[in-house]
Amino acid sequence: MASLANFLRPGVGGMLKEGTKHLSGVEEAVLKNIEACKDLASIVRTSMGPNGMNKMVLNHTGKVFVTTDAATIMKELDVIHPAAKMMVMAAQSQERECGDGTGFVIVFAGELLEQAQELIRQGLHPSEIIQGYQKGYEKALQVLETLVTTSIPNLRDKKAVCEALRSCIASKQYGLEDLIASLVAEACISVLPSDERHFNVDNIRVSKVLGGSLPFSTVVHGTVVSQEAAGSIKSVQNAKVAIYSCDFDIENPETKGTVLIKNATELQTYNRSEEDSLEKKVKDIAESGVTVVVSPKFGDLALHFLERYKIMAVKCSSKVDLRRIARSCGAAGLTKVEAPDTESIGFCDSVMEEEISSTKMVVFRQKNENSRVATILLRGGTENMIDDVERAIDDAVNVFKVLTRDNRFVPGAGATEIELARQISSFGDKSPGLDQYAIKKYAESLEVFPRTLAENAGLKATDVVSRLYAVHTSGQCTTGIDIEASSKVREDITDGSLSNGTGAVHETLPTGILDAKSCDIYDSLATKKSALTLATQVATTVLKIDQIIMAKQAGGPKPQSRDADADDAA
């Protein structure tokens, strides 16, 4: 009877299973989704730019993250709202594709939806807004091609690569961008293959060492194992390396068996046979020319024979690190303890145990600069600081990967967004129909980036943005936000009301404007295109949703917390 009563309910509720929630219409579905996305964007917005504020995130395991990196914030936040989740997935796609611009995707998508909310309240249908946004997006891609300011024809030019990476790093580690860019550029160029399109970000590794400060960080052409050598041999030059993915010890039989031993002589003979077998294997390995053996685990007896035959033992428990060592040395991983053939043996110029800030590690160093793997030894005083620098390095390495596909750049510091907004707004004025309102709102949404940069730098955003529009209208399309303007006192001959009697005017209120091109502030064109695409797609997808249908969650009642149990007991 309960199910029959459910059938008799009016509307969609009578068709669906009892407990299902159904929301429809502009107020219940569209605007609620927009509000959730706006709230998510507001979290990231204050963290944008070099002066962005840190967010402290405690994940479900209790680990603390203090960072401005939007990708990390999105990853650690447990977002459950379906519409907001789509924004998170778009940001993750941007992170996988370009490594940078995740904040751009979140903030721009949130601003597009906020502007769409105004249009909906004014009476426009979501379909009309979507059409206008699509036209604005297509116009943005056309304008972007005309804003290309520079490119890097030679990716092995360290100075040019450093300039290209500075802007990406400065947005996360302002003041350290030159140092970090130099480390990343050196590491990336050293592993860049002859076919530049085959650059692999996994060939760049970061090894974190507590102690010291960031300027002590170095680049190792090779790889590093964060453990000391297993035996007494600590250094080998011109080493031949054999890598075993199995434990280096007496081999255990695959099946269980029983050995009947009647006296002590038979026991001694049995043990001796196993020892002789292992010693023969180590001897064969030594005769093949191997001087360094890498394995996840070494037995005591195996270490004894390795020492006897002057072979260095390096313990490496991580399979990822084993693959990196194999790639760095040109070796092949072996799954059985036996003498390797010539093709499986790798070569390394130097394998040495080093101590850095009381941390012992084994360094596989190649002397030639064109090594297959590079490791950035990162120094710092706290784990949070090193982790945040590592995230900036990961983003910069991914930006370098993007350069191998498209080496063109557009002006940074918000200059590109203002010029896009200006030209798209002009395009909207000339467009017929109701689409023009959505096109102009698309242009207005792009103002969020220079406005946010100015706000986070402590500037008067409205004044700075209006000045930017005026300068861009005069043809200076590379002009952007000067985030250091609040600490400067400028002299402006052509503007102002404060004069010293000689015609020069001392302006204490900063203009907040600079030429991004002359200051070498650039953004990757490919990253900008990808971010615009993903943000527009997620905004239009959210606007297309007019009904939300939520099935009843499976399972029984949720377990009570301990506090609730204690209250019940009381």
UniProtKB/TrEMBL annotation:
This is CCT-theta. Its main location: cytoplasm. It comes from Galdieria sulphuraria (Red alga). The keyword Protein transport does not apply. GO terms for molecular function: ATP binding; ATP hydrolysis activity; ATP-dependent protein folding chaperone; unfolded protein binding. The keyword Nucleotide-binding applies. Belongs to the TCP-1 chaperonin family. GO terms for cellular component: cytoplasm. SUPFAM superfamilies: GroEL apical domain-like, GroEL equatorial domain-like, GroEL-intermediate domain like. The lineage of its organism: Eukaryota, Rhodophyta, Bangiophyceae, Galdieriales, Galdieriaceae. It is found in: Cytoplasm. Keywords: ATP-binding, Chaperone, Cytoplasm, Nucleotide-binding. GO terms for biological process: positive regulation of transport. PROSITE patterns: TCP1_1. NCBIfam families: chap_CCT_theta. InterPro entries: Chap_CCT_theta (IPR012721), Chaperone_TCP-1 (IPR017998), Chaperonin_TCP-1_CS (IPR002194), Cpn60/GroEL/TCP-1 (IPR002423), GroEL-like_apical_dom_sf (IPR027409), GROEL-like_equatorial_sf (IPR027413), TCP-1-like_intermed_sf (IPR027410).
